[in-house]
Amino acid sequence: MDFKKVKSNSKWGVVPYRITESGRIEILIISTRRKNWSLPKGNLIKHIGPQRTALLEAYEEAGIDGILQAEPLICPLARTCIYLFPMEVNKVYQDWPEAVFRKRKWIELTKAKKMLHHSTMGSVLSKFFPSKK
Questions:
Q1: Would 115 be classed as within a structural domain?
Q2: Secondary structure (H, E, C), 8-58
Q3: Does the residue 133 lie in any domain?
Q4: Between β-strands 80-92 and 41-43, what pairing exists: parallel, antiparallel or unpaired?
Q5: Tell me: the pLDDT tens digits for 29-84?
Q6: Is residue 108 part of a domain?
Q7: What CATH number has the domain bearing residue 79?
Q8: Are 44 and 52 in contact (CB under 8 A)?
Q9: Is 60 helix (H, G, I), strand (E, B) or coil?
Q10: Cβ(71)–Cβ(60) under 8 Å?
Q11: Handedness of CA 40, 59, 66, 94 (dihedral sign)
C-alpha cells in the first residue's frame, strides 16, 4: 500500500484481538466520549507514520500493545477512511492515558460485530476473520 496517496482526513488504528485457550477470538472494543463502542483509532501523525500512529492510538485509547499485521484493513466511513491494522494483543496495561474517560471490554467476535457503532467496522472484522463466528 502506498501510504503517501492516502487522504489527509483518514484515521489510523487497530483491530485488537486475542485467541482464548478454547480457540475463540475476542476483540477489544473501547467506549467513545459519546458512549458508543469503537476500535482505537486517530489522526495520522506524519513524522512517525501509519504503523506507529496505530500503536500509539492503541496505547493511548485502550492501554494495549501488540504485534501489527503488515497491511491494514480499509474501513470507508462517510467522508473519512479508517485504516485498521489487525493487532494481536500481548500487553494490557492497568493504567493508560485515556483510562479516565474510556471503558474497554473483551468480547467475542460475533458480539463485537454487532456492538460497534459503525456497522462498517463490523464488516471489517468479517474480512480479517472470514471463517470465524
A1: yes
A2: CCCEEEEEEEEECCCCCEEEEEEECCCCCEECCEEECCCCCHHHHHHHHHH
A3: no
A4: unpaired
A5: 999 988 899 999 999 998 999 999 999 999 999 999 999 999 999 988 778 889 99
A6: yes
A7: 3.90.79.10
A8: no
A9: helix
A10: no
A11: negative
